[in-house]
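Q: Give me the 3D complex with uracil.
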Amino acid sequence: MDRSLQLKYLKAMGIDVWLAKHPTEPTAIEVEQVATQDVTEQGKWGELQSEIANCTRCGLCNTRKNTVFGAGNPEADWLLIGEAPGHSEDIQGLPFVGSAGALLTEMLRAVKLTREQVFIANILKCRPPDNRDPKAEEIAACNDYLQRQIAYIRPKIILAIGRIAAQTVLKTDQPLAKLRGKVHNLDATPVIVVYHPAYLLRTLIEKRKAWLDLQLALQTYDKIKR
Ligand code: URA
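A: Here is the predicted complex, encoded as structure tokens.
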């Protein structure tokens, strides 16, 4: 509600309102409201973490060692979304910690970011056995978790890592080649599609294109920040 309207109502109800001496200083009521909001927001993140840790929404709960919630800064401007945990991620409960993860860290470094400055999540929070592609029903069961992570983080830019992440985030079945090199949108948030580092490890020849993807991401982010 508009602040002046709120004050008018409170006055009409006979409630004394203490105004700050300096208009930029928040009132005691406002400070309390913000503090309560923060606690509620942090509570939401914690709730989501424990929901995911205990999830039994699909059959992957029977084969996983650990769920992989994601890692990094939950207030980050950059949200990176991968496909699903692999063997090392399943064991450690952390995203992108295997050899693809090491390359992802290097890719971030190329745009002057550290893993601590971004948040890294996956479409699936549990490892599909033998690293097979996620099934449609597994993606559907897990989707609400990712949506809640996006809503909480409110990133300024999203990097969809690899075909499955890109197709899921953008709700399309277009091939990766068609999705790369463009700025897409998820609601009002720009989404850039980048090669999956596991793919880059196999096809070093595409590394130049990966560099172009990252440049597009950086340019897009710089424009938003201006
Ligand atoms: N590949 C992914 O897409 N995500 C991970 O967390 C690890 C490997």
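A quick observation: Residues 28-53 form the longest helix (26 residues).
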